[in-house]
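Friendly challenge for the regulars: who can give me the structure tokens for this chain first? No prize, just bragging rights.
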Amino acid sequence: MSEKTSNGWLRRVWIVLKKELRDHSRDRRSLMLALIYPMLGPLLVAGGLVLAGKTLQGDFREHAVTVSAVGIERAPQLKTYLENNNVRFSAAPPTRQAQEDAVREGRLAVVLIVPQSADGQGAFTIELLTNTGRVDNLRVTARLSAIVRSFNDHIADQKALAAGLPAGYATTVKIERTNVARDANIAVFFYNMVPPLVIFMIFLGGVHLAIDTTVGERERGSLEPLLLAPVERWVLLLAKALAALAFTAVTTVVNLAAFRVFMGLAASSSERLVAPPGWDVFAVIFAVTVPLMAIAVALQMSVAVITRSMKEAQIYLGLLPLVPALPGMVMVFSPMNPTDVTVAVPVLGQMLLINQLVGEQSLDPQHVLIAALTTTLSAALIFLLAAKWFRREKMFVLG
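First reply, four minutes later:
Bragging rights claimed.
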């Protein structure tokens, strides 16, 4: 290809690209999708983080908790120990059914039941009525359970000392925990939700533009006059794809910046929440997602050029972001370690790398290179298919 020919198609791409960017910069729907929608996910995560911070605010041992109790007077030692650990007691409903209903409906966090057989006994079994479907109930139940276990250790030590044995004699195996991970904190769980939400937004950012510049223009009748211009169809489609890529990049920048700002503000609301990764980490995340943006736009253009109507394209492309995002949500609860094979899978490779970055782990340069090459190559192949379909005369026949 001569330099003149190369400059010619590049110039035509640039002309069409400027037209698409100018037109869609004036479109409120495109701007809303690029500037407003990317903030919704970060706001939801930050809101959850604030609520979690309020739940964890302060040392739980310094705050009194009220527990409804039945028969607590039958275990005076336990009652005294719980009171010394800031547990207060209130009367429970009179019947078992009323107690279960109160816990199930959230009116009571937990009901502690000491059986009649515990009266005057040194060993007995208590019952805790709780609702594991409520986070606030879990917190109270976990605290109460921990104090009871501490009470057992306390009594065991007293019996050992009374028998002339050292404290802890009855404990066969002692556990000493050393945390080598990033600060163990509920905030880290929220930060792990960033990768799937970022990927969801990447596959959503250029959807409107991809639909509007292809099947949308065909339905409005504005595509055929454009084809009369001396511009190759693949050049035309490339310019439209680059415009969608530009909007996707803007969406991603807004999304990542919103995550960092909102999560930073949420984490600063409580001293018990660890701060999110720094701006440098989010900058690297953006760089890692560039090939992901390319394959997202290539898929969007491919679907848009083969669908017969805007409504059909909107249905398919509305579901497209869920395909990569759902596995990402699964990985929040079941993380996967990157390997040369897994990072070579388009989209999955970037997801694994983003997970590492959010967890403030160092990236393997080889993994970054493999993921970038395979995803970029896949994007190029998908775009070539879209360009082939775009050249068909059938593409411009409505219905």
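Residues 178-184 have pLDDT under 50 and may be disordered. The domain at 64-162 is CATH 3.40.190.10 (D-Maltodextrin-Binding Protein; domain 2). Your move, everyone else.
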